[in-house]
Amino acid sequence: MTAARSRARRLAPEDRRRALVDATLPLVREHGLAVSTRQIAEAAGVAEGTIFRAFPDKDALLRATFAAALDPAPTLRALADVDRSVPLRARLVAAVTVLQQRFEEVFRLVDALHAANPEHCPPGSGPGPHDPRALNAAFADALAEVVGPDGGALRVPVPEFARVLRLLTLSGTHPRLCDGQPLTADEIVGTLLDGLAAAPTTTEDTSC
């Protein structure tokens, strides 16, 4: 290893921790908890000792990585950025695409951890900042904001519509729940807005 490679580029401590977390997350998805600090250092382009100057130990780095992977803030920001000037259907397709990206990333992480150790529960997965009930409420509120003033065109209250949209997106994206045939964002939105029943046929009344 060259001197330039072994000497990490100077970063502020928080930036260094963030860079290490960014390098660790893809490796955890691939190797689970078996990922080594040597692999992480190589991916981050730093010496192994740099990891332990930024984190007390490997477990601390993994906890920070899990927290970053589960952090809802980027997804909520992306939902807030959905263009409100386009029609409702287009807004919903954009919102579902954002949710599917998050779900897919979390599913891959959970699958990697389960493959490495079926009994393992990622640190921070219980109640707290990433409490599922709090996350569900935050995403429901964000989806309701996407619907906005078009709520009057729905047959159900906006909160119920947002709840069903989130559940349909979750089940239509999870590889085991959807039988390995995930629904596209257009299919999910179309199912909710249009239903799956055939259009009723009308018979012309010829009686006098």
TrEMBL record:
GO molecular function terms listed in the Swiss-Prot or TrEMBL record: DNA-binding transcription factor activity; transcription cis-regulatory region binding
Annotation: DNA-binding region: 36-55
InterPro entries linked to this entry: DNA-bd_HTH_TetR-type_CS (IPR023772), Homeodomain-like_sf (IPR009057), HTH-type_TetR-like_transc_reg (IPR050109), HTH_TetR (IPR001647)
Domain called HTH tetR-type: residue spans: 14-73
Gene3D superfamilies according to UniProt: Tetracycline Repressor, domain 2
Pfam families: TetR_N
Keyword Transcription part of the UniProt annotation: yes
Source taxon at top rank: Bacteria
Keywords in alphabetical order: DNA-binding, Transcription, Transcription regulation
The protein's name: TetR/AcrR family transcriptional regulator
Organism of provenance: Pseudonocardia broussonetiae
